[in-house]
Design goal:
Pfam families: Ribosomal_S2. This is 30S ribosomal protein S2, chloroplastic. Belongs to the universal ribosomal protein uS2 family. The protein is elongated. The chain folds into two domains: 153 residues, Rossmann fold; 42 residues. It is built from seven helices and eight strands. Helices cover 40% and strands 17% of the residues. The strands form two sheets. It has a five-stranded parallel sheet with strand order 5-4-6-7-8, sandwiched between helices. The protein has a three-stranded antiparallel sheet with strand order 1-3-2. It is of the alpha/beta class.
């Protein structure tokens, strides 16, 4: 079970510089120390438990989105454990809003390799395309339909993905630092979104309830 002590030990409370503060995050800030905002861990605990309860009673499919290199393996492992989907490479515009087109392209590419009439050069070109597509779409290639829920790690960096989720009415759960906008999500978890230990602790807690 997640506790304030565990949150503190994982540096979840360390926010951004006071100069980067988003005023809308004020209700989730405890104070400041040496020019750094301190996140209210009681709020983090309350919001995390709220999200966990929501996930516990949901049978809907979840998509993890976070493209910071240092978090890729953690996000991927969480998604695989809970039979969810993930995007850990660069977000390509239209991955959700043009999902049917993206899905069709992936399926066609797989089928092309069944033919024996291709030349070596054609095969080489297609293999290069496949490697590139695998890099960006490996976590969603088995996704038959749009996800019901998206968990966002790093709102600032994932704003394009967020815009697509909002347009498609996909429920958003966001790990949100002191420089983020809480109006762009359905569920907020105030937390340090630059720390591996912080991200790992929160995602593990959520993953247990998916």
């Amino acid at each position: 079970m997640i506790t304030v002590e565990k949150l503190l030990a994982s540096s979840v409370h360390l926010g951004h510089s006071i100069k980067e503060k988003n005023p809308k995050m004020s209700p989730y800030i405890y104070g400041e120390r040496k020019g750094i905002h301190i996140i209210d861990l009681l709020q983090t605990l309350i919001q995390t438990r709220k999200v966990c309860k929501f996930l516990s009673y949901s049978t809907k499919k979840v998509l993890f989105i976070g493209t910071k290199v240092q978090f890729a393996s953690v996000i991927e492992n969480c998604a695989i454990k809970s039979n969810s989907y993930y995007v850990t490479q660069r977000w390509l515009g239209g991955m959700l809003t043009n999902w049917l087109t993206v899905k069709t392209c992936l399926e066609k590419l797989e089928k092309i390799f069944d033919f024996k009439i291709l030349t070596k050069k054609e095969n080489l070109i297609l293999k290069k395309k496949k490697i590139k597509l695998e890099k960006y779409f490996s976590g969603i290639k088995k996704m038959n339909k749009l996800p019901d829920i998206a968990i966002i790690i790093g709102q600032k960096k994932e704003i394009n993905a967020i815009k697509e989720c909002l347009k498609l009415n996909i429920t958003l759960i966001t790990l949100m630092d002191t420089n983020c906008d809480p109006t762009l999500t359905d569920f907020i978890i105030p937390a340090n979104d630059d720390s591996l230990s912080s991200i790992s602790l929160i995602l593990d807690a959520l993953n247990e309830h998916i």
